[in-house]
Specification:
The protein has 122 residues and is mainly β. The protein has a domain of 78 residues: SH3 Domains (SH3 type barrels). It is built from 1 helix and 5 strands. A 5-stranded antiparallel sheet has the order 4-3-2-1-5. A hairpin with a 5-residue loop joins strand 3 and strand 4. It is elongated and about 65 Å long. InterPro entries: SH3-like_dom_sf, SH3_domain. It comes from Coilia grayii. This is SH3 domain-containing protein. Keywords: SH3 domain.
């Protein structure tokens, strides 16, 4: 399931003032999740001209944190997809020494390795 995010280009240098902030250099690209701008507590500006504090990821440094919306310009929408799964499953190598289970994982007496009971009709 993909989600939309907004990207912004940094116009002015910003040095971190608090622990939750991220430092910015002109030209950095920042990605902000669309949901953070739709949150009820964000009411300053809109995605194209943010005026309040935004929370996002600096794509250059991979830092996440808050930054002033007035220091950036709107670039556009980016669709973020979840990481793709591998198209194949990696096979598990055989257990060294044969199919012996480690101590404590032995099947109960009278049971086969598949879990069935041994009987006279085997």
């Amino acid at each position: 399931m993909a989600s939309d995010s907004f990207q912004y280009r940094v116009l002015f240098e910003y040095k971190r003032e608090r622990g939750d902030d991220i430092s910015l250099q002109p030209g950095d690209i920042l990605t902000v999740n669309k949901m953070s701008l739709l949150a009820p507590d964000y009411q300053e500006g809109d995605e194209r001209s943010p005026k309040g504090w935004l929370h996002g990821t600096n794509e250059r440094t991979k830092e996440k944190g808050d930054f002033p919306g007035t220091f950036v310009e709107y670039v556009g929408v980016v669709r973020v997809s979840p990481p793709a799964t591998k198209p194949w499953t990696r096979p598990v190598p055989p257990t060294p020494g044969g199919a012996q289970a480690p101590p404590g994982l032995q099947p109960p007496a009278g049971a086969s390795a598949s879990g069935g009971e041994l009987g006279p009709n085997m």
